[in-house]
Amino acid sequence: MRGALRYVGARFVTTALVVLGAMLLLFALTALVPGDPATALIGPQATPEYARRFIVEMGLDQPWWRRLFTFLSRLLVGDLGTDVLSGRPVIQVVGAVLPYTFALTGASIGLALLLGVPLGCYAATHRGSTADGLLAFSSVTLIAIPSFVIAIFLLLLFSIYLDWLPVLGGGEPGNWVDGGKRLILPTVALGVGWIGFVARLVRTSMLEVLGENHIRTSRAYGLPDRLVVYKYALRNACIPTLAVLGVGIGRLLGGAVLVEIVFARPGLGRLIYDAISTRNFAVLQGAVLVVVVAFVLTNLLVDLSYSVIDPRIRRQDPVR
Amino acid sequence: MSAALVEIRGLSVHARTEAGEAHILRGLDLTIGRGRILGIVGESGSGKSTLASCLLRLLPANISRVEGSIVMDGTDLLRLGPAAMAEWRGRRIAAIFQDPMTALNPLFTVGTHLVDVLRRRFPDLSRGAALARAEAMLETVGIPDPPSRLDAYPHQLSGGMRQRVVIAMALSVQPDLLLADEPTTALDATIEAQIVDLLGRIRRDFAGSMAFISHHLGLVAELCDDLCVMYGGLVVESGPTEAVLARPRHPYTRALLDCEISEGDTGRLVTIPGEVPPVTADVEGCIFATRCPHVAPACLAGQPPLASVGPERRAACVRSFEILP
Fold it and tell me: Does B169 lie at the interface with A, CB-CB under 8 angstroms?
């Protein structure tokens, strides 16, 4: 138990370093982005005096490293700054869209796992069959098509042509049915490539595990295929699959940006996109910080899950 | 020898390899007597493990052709469909494998392994009853403190202990045939002796037959009632262990015996010059001709069949009585 705590502690230190590195990069990049934030935000008609005051208010007259320092020291007391456009605290702005993005990415991962895992198992146990070949082909195709292309296609087909589902937006907060309906197409658009991705991952890991001696033992004792594959082998195949998925979360969040834009859904991705176009740095920093933290936390969760799955990783066990 | 439990006739196995088609078993004949322990010995590459895989019908993916028959209790296992064969595994036939370090799933406890195997064999068994029986089985195979070992994961046990767990699995299903494919090869010498002791001890309560595959003639002599010597994918000699070892009837068996280190031996180790013919080669004459010190023109005419050379004894050598009087 103490070992586990120390492990988590060490991971939090790494997490802090990753966040620091990411923010450092972000501040350096914003310093390089061309365009005058004041002009972008308040428009070209503003008087020079007003623009000047605005820049000072945003702290943009300071060099980027000093702005980073200010940002980080405020961060320590939980202050993400204020959105100069709306006058609301950034934390509120980000918090308002966070549920939409989490719902979208969560549902996409759920969809990918729900379909990808059984498909991967099936492909591995029916290696070389027509179904396996078909699955390989469609997986690669779906992985290769960018999510925004699928998004536009789905929109045209289901919302415009068939008129089965609402077109755009995220729905009213609190209206679960409408929100759910509006979640379907974006989830499919974002998740469909991941179904193929997960299926490929599971198939590869599964094939490796199925060749191992302990699986031959299970078979030699006549355990039914269902038990051998879904109990004994799948648990082993989980570990490499999870490892790749953890890293893939970053790519998923990136894909969410495009899907949110196509469907005009509120969300972190859209927020970041708008913040970049308007050079609204305070919001940009806050939103990116949340994305980085979400990414790092997911990976921490993935790493911790290994020790739940694999007893050999629980290091405190006494050797008997 | 009492009535046969398993009769293998003309078992021939081909495999695809990078070097072309390989003939791993070349028409092998073998009989496992009811309630007997049969020792199967031979060098690496003689096809011992392939034979075990055939009995379980768990063949490696590169096997392209299996011919002949394996008749157990009147049923030809090679003619059974996959589902019917799965019924035999873990009920009528159980196996202990070569490498205990990898034979158990690292992510499941010893108890889970035993309970799943037990409940598949005896579907009416409740989980609690299965656990109790698993505990008793661990006791039987000499694992100290069984209740706590049920919750142990394989990596928490030594190689010898893991092999005992697999033996417990094998015994728990009360098979008619217990296959032990080099169960001690991966273990060090003292543990090896313990496991062989254990196998000898359990036979008192074990009603079935056992096939003990090994390359170690000494172990086989200690444990087995009958002996069968494999070479190049064929059985070249078989018979009651004592009789075969006292007076081998095939020059290969003789040569194997000469390789064993006996007490009072000094000086250099004896080896058999040459190598087993490659599995990809077509062999015209006797399979052992290339290494046999007594090879004669008659030996090159074709593979001699396993012929009776005494009570319960068979050997595949045309010059048997000439060279081994």
Answer: yes
Q: Which fold has domain A99-269?
A: MetI-like fold (1.10.3720)
> Count of H helices and E strands in chain A?
13, 0
ipTM of the complex: 0.86
All residues of chain B having their beta carbon less than 8 Å from the beta carbon of residue A224 are 86, 120
pLDDT band, residue B104 (cuts 50/70/90): very high
A-chain residues within 8 Å CB-CB of B90? 220-223
**Domain end (from B134, B152, B172):** B172
Q: Are A265 and A182 in contact (CB under 8 A)?
A: yes
Q: Do B58 and A311 touch (CB under 8 A)?
A: no
Taking an 8 Å cut-off on Cβ atoms, the answer to whether B58 and A219 are in contact is yes
Instruction: Calculate how close chain B gets to A138, using CA atoms only, in Å.
Output: 26
pLDDT digits (tens, 9 = 90+) for A289-320: 888 888 888 888 888 888 888 888 765 544 43
Find the largest Cα–Cα distance for chain A. 84
Judged by average pLDDT, the poorest of A153-157, A169-173, A183-187, B238-242 is A169-173
**Whole-angstrom Cα distance, residue B233 to residue B214?**
15
Domain locations in chain A as residue ranges = 99-269
Q: In what order do the strands lie in the sheet with B75-76?
A: B20-33, B4-17, B63-72, B75-76
Res B245: pLDDT: 92
Task: Write out chain B residues lying below 8 Å of A227, CB-based.
Answer: 116, 120
pLDDT at res. A175: 67
Please check whether residue B173 touches A, CB under 8 A.
yes
How many folded domains does chain B comprise?
A: 2
